[in-house]
Amino acid sequence: MSKKIVIVGAVAAGPKAACRLKRLRPDWEVTMVDQDSLISYGGCGIPYYVSGDVSDESELRATSFHVVRDATFFEHSKGVRVLTQTKALAIDRQAKTVRVENLETGAQQDLPYDKLMLATGSRPFDLPIPGADLDGVFTIANLHKAIEIKQRIAQGKVSRAVVIGGGAIGIEMAEALTDLWGIETSLLELAPQLLPRIVDWHFAAMLKKHLQEKGVAVYARESATELLNDGQGKVCGVKTGQRTLEADLVIMAVGVRPRSELAKAAGLDVAPWGGIKVNQRLQTSDPDIYAAGDCIAVTSLITGRETYAPLGSLANREGRVVGDNLAGYPTVFNGVCGSFIMKAFERCIAATGLTVEAARAEGFDADYALTAPADRAHFFPDQAVVILQLVFERKNRRVLGLQAFGMMNDSISARVDTAAALIAKGATIEDFGMVEMAYAPPFSSAIDSINAAAYVAENLCDNRLRQIELGRFLAWMDNMASEPDWAVLDLRHPVEAAPYVERYGAERWIAMEYGQVRTRHGELPAGKTFILLCNAGPRSYEVQVFLDHLGKSASMVLCGGLNVISRLDVDWLLK
Amino acid sequence: MSKKIVIVGAVAAGPKAACRLKRLRPDWEVTMVDQDSLISYGGCGIPYYVSGDVSDESELRATSFHVVRDATFFEHSKGVRVLTQTKALAIDRQAKTVRVENLETGAQQDLPYDKLMLATGSRPFDLPIPGADLDGVFTIANLHKAIEIKQRIAQGKVSRAVVIGGGAIGIEMAEALTDLWGIETSLLELAPQLLPRIVDWHFAAMLKKHLQEKGVAVYARESATELLNDGQGKVCGVKTGQRTLEADLVIMAVGVRPRSELAKAAGLDVAPWGGIKVNQRLQTSDPDIYAAGDCIAVTSLITGRETYAPLGSLANREGRVVGDNLAGYPTVFNGVCGSFIMKAFERCIAATGLTVEAARAEGFDADYALTAPADRAHFFPDQAVVILQLVFERKNRRVLGLQAFGMMNDSISARVDTAAALIAKGATIEDFGMVEMAYAPPFSSAIDSINAAAYVAENLCDNRLRQIELGRFLAWMDNMASEPDWAVLDLRHPVEAAPYVERYGAERWIAMEYGQVRTRHGELPAGKTFILLCNAGPRSYEVQVFLDHLGKSASMVLCGGLNVISRLDVDWLLK
C-alpha cells in the first residue's frame, strides 16, 4: 500500500533518503521540502568554487552526467516531489502533518505523512560581536553566500580578507582566497592551535607553518572582538585583543550547530547542545520520525558516546539508512570514527578517531607513536616524508586514532581510510602491524608506513622503546638549564649534526654517527641522559636498545626526529 | 643465555628477522648467509632501476638515510654477522648445524645453530625452450641481472625487446623498456589475458589497451617456442606459434618458484609445488627451523587454503614474525589476502582477494559489482573515472575481493588497502557500504566509490538489480542475431547516443534520455528485452527499477556502462 513520506531538508541526507526510498518503493509518494531555492549541492565544494577550481556553482549541484539537480530533476528523474523555498514551520505528531510555508507567496499548507524524515542540517555559528551584521561579513551558510563572496572577489572588491576560525572550512577558505586570488589573508583561531580537537597540537603546528609559508597570516589564541565599520555600513577591519587587521571581506567559520528547532518544538528528544537524538536505525524518539545528517547526534565508535559529525559523506550514508528503514527494510547506522581529510595548499592533513589529547580527556590510557617515514619506496623518485601518528591505549593495545601530514596526494587517504576500517572493528596495534597494504615502489614501502607506526606502538607498549614527549623536548630546548644532565645524541651523518654541535656546544649536542655507536660508545660521557635523535626515529630506537644492553639506560628517543621538528612552527632550530 | 641463530638468505625476510631479533636479544649471535654478494635489496624496484627512475642500483640496497646495506652495515649498525657469497649446502638437524661453502674460496664449514631460519626466496622459472641460454636472454633473478640489462641498454645495444610473461614484472619491464628507453617492445603472455589469476579478464583487457596505446605490442594466448640465435650465440629473435619477433634483448618473466631444495633435502615438509610448509608461527615441520618469504606456502585468509604469495612486503612482515618467535615472543602470521598493485604507464591497476573467476573456481557462489565512478568529487578538476569491481558471495554476502583500474595516483591504494583490511576481518557487503572513507572533494566523493560499489552489490544480492554479464553483452554485440529480441536502451544524452543509433539501427539501439523515461516510457516497443546503458550504471539501475514497477521487467543493466566498455581492448565500438 502506498505511503506518504515527507522529508524536511533537501541538501544531502534528504535527497539520498528520498531517492533510495523511491527505488525501494516506487509507488510511494515522497515529498521533500527545503526553505532554499538551491538544493542538493555539495557544500564541501564551496571553497573550491570560491577559489575558481570549480568554475560555476551549478557544478556543485550537478550529477556526474552534468544535469543540475533541481526540483524538476528530482520530479522527472527520481519521481520525488520537491517544494523549494518552502519552510517547515511545525510538526503535528498527533495528526501526522507538517505545516509548511511557501516563502515566496506566504501560503501555508499541512503536508500529511505516514513517516517523516528530518534532514534539517546545520547552521554556521554567528559570532556575537559588534559588526557581525556589516556588509562584507559572511558565513559559509549556503550556496548563495558562496556566490556572493565569489562575485565580490571577481569584481576586484576584495584585497584583504580575514577568516575567523581555524577549522577545515576556515583553512580551505583562506587557501582559496590566497592561492588563486592573491588576496592578503589572515586566519584567526581562538584556540591555541588550528583544527582543535581534530589533530594534536604538533600536527596543527606543521599545518600552520605551511600556511604561513604560503602567505596566510595565522594568529592562534586570538579572537575577533569587533568588526569595524567603514562608516558606510561596510566592514573595513577586524579588531582582536592584540591587533587590528584591515579587511574588506570577513568570513566567519567558527563551526556549525545542528538545526533542530523544529524537532525540539515537536517534543522530540534533542541533546542539550542541539543534536537530535536517534537510535541505530536513525529513528527519533517518535518512531514515525527519522533524522539524519548535520542535525543529529551520532555515536562515536571509539568512545561509545554521543558526538557530533557534520560531514557530507556521513549525511549521505545516514540518508541511505533512513531510506531503507522508511521502506521497511531494517538497517542500522552504527556510528562514526570521525574521519577527516583536507588539502592545504601543497599538503594534505588527515585524521581518524581520537587525538592523544582527546583520548586522554576521555579517560583513555592513551599514548602515541609518532613516525616520519617515506610515503612510498624511499628509492622512488617522487617519494616524500609523511608524518604519521598512531594513537593507542597502552593497556589493551587498542588503536584509538591515526593522524597524518604529508604531501598533497592520495597516499594519506590510503592510510587513514584503512585505519578507520580497522578502528571501527576495534582493531589492536597488532592488527595494524599485520594489515596488508598493496605494495609496489610507486605506491608504498615494503614495510608500509602504517605497519611501521604499529611496530613503534608495539615497542612503546612493551617498554622496549622509551620516548620523550615532543612538548617536553621543545620545552627543554627553550631552557636547557631545566635539565642540566640532558644531552642530545645526534646519530645522523656528522655533516648534518655539525651546525647543531656548534650552536649548542658539544656538551649539550653530541654527534656520533649511528653506524659507529657499537664501536665508539665508550666515548660517551657518563652521567648524562641522552635524547637520541635522527631524522625519523628508527636509528635512535636501535641505539637505545644497544645502550640499554650495555646498561646505559638513561636515554629517550625523540620519535619522528628531525623530520617532525623541522616541520613545526617553532623557532628553536634557528636559535 | 645467549643463543646462536643462523639465517639462510639475506634479501628481505632474512635481514628483517635478523635485525628484529638483535633488538629483542642484543646478546644473541645472529649470522646470515647468502650466496650472493649483493644483499638486502628492494627487488621490486628493479624495473625502476632499469627504466632509469632509480639511477643507481645501490639505491635499491640503501637505507632511507643513504647508507648501503652491505655486510659491513649489518655488522656495525645491527650487530649481525653476514657471510656473503656463501651457499648453504645442507642442514644437519640432529647436530643442528648448517654446512656452508664460501663460493670464492671453496672453503666449507659447519655453522652451529640453536634456531635456524630459512629465507631462501624464489627463483625465476626458466622456460625450457631452445635458445633459452643465448646471450641477451635474461630472467630478473637478482640485481646482477638487472645491472647487466641496464648496461646493455645504456650502451645502445638494445633496439628491440621481447618480454615473455604478462605478469607484474613482465609488464613493469615492458614499461621500463618502452617508456624511458624507447625500445620497441613486445609482450607475450601464454594465458588468454595479462595478469592471469590476479585480475578478471575485463580488467586485463583495459590494461592491455592502455599498454598498446603506449606502444607495447601485446600478444596474449601466445607463447615463445624458440629463441633465435644470430649465429654468434646472441639472441636475435623470438619464435611463437604465430609469428617471429626480432629482438636483441629477451626477458623471461614467467613467474617464480620457491627455493626449497635445502629444506626438502633436510626432510622438512614441503608442498608438492615447492612451498615450505609452516604453521602460523612460521615454524617448519622442525620446530627449531623457521621459514619466511618467497620460499614458503602461506594461507589465504579468504579460502583458508594454501597459497603462494611471493611479495617483498609480505616477506618483511613474515620476517618480523620470525624474529619475534626466534626471540621467544610467540607471534603469529595469519595469512594473506593477496593484495596487488602496479603502475602501468599512466594507469594504476590493483586487486586484493579473489577474482570472480578464481572465486567461482574455488566453489564460491560469487558475483561481482562493476562500477565506474569518479575517483574524487566529480566536480573537482583532477577527477577521473576509476573502474572498481567488488567480488562477493551472494548467499552470505561476504566480500571476497576488489579490483580497480584508474589513473596513476594513490586513490586506488586507498580503496584496495581499505578493502584488504576489511576482507581480512571477514567483512560483508554491508561493512563495505558503511566503511568510513575520509571525505573532502580533492580526495573522494561524498559517497565514496567503495561505498557505492557495495550498494550495487547489495542491490544485486537483493535481486533489485539484474545485470547482464559483460562477456554476454559483448558476445551479443558480436552477433546480434543470437538474441533477436534484445535492444540497447541508451539513457545518455541524445547527442551521445546518436552515432550508435545510426550505426546499429533504431531497432537495436533505442535512445531515450534518462530524465525522460518517466514521461516517455509509453514509446518503448513491446516484446523487447532492454539492455540498459548509460556511462557508469546508476541511471540504468534507476530506470530498471522504474520499468519493473510498470511491469516491464525484461531488462538488464550493463554495470559500469560505457565507461567500462570504452576502456576495453575490443573493437565493437568501431564496427
Compose a concise summary of this entry.
2 copies of one chain form a homodimer. Chain A is an alpha/beta fold and 575 residues long. Helix content of chain A is 29%, strand content 23%.
Structure explained in plain terms:
2 copies of one chain form a homodimer. Chain A has 575 residues and is α/β, with parallel strands linked by helices. Chain A folds into 4 domains: 4-123 and 257-327, FAD/NAD(P)-binding domain (3-Layer(bba) Sandwich); 137-254, FAD/NAD(P)-binding domain (3-Layer(bba) Sandwich), CATH 3.50.50; 340-461, 3-Layer(bba) Sandwich (FAD/NAD(P)-binding domain); 470-565, Oxidized Rhodanese, domain 1. Chain A is 29% helix and 23% strand. The first copy, chain A, is built from 17 helices and 29 strands. Chain A has a 5-stranded parallel β-sheet. In chain A, helix 1 packs parallel to helix 8 (312-327). The longest helix of chain A has 16 residues, at 312-327. Chain A starts with a strand and ends in a 10-residue tail after the last helix.
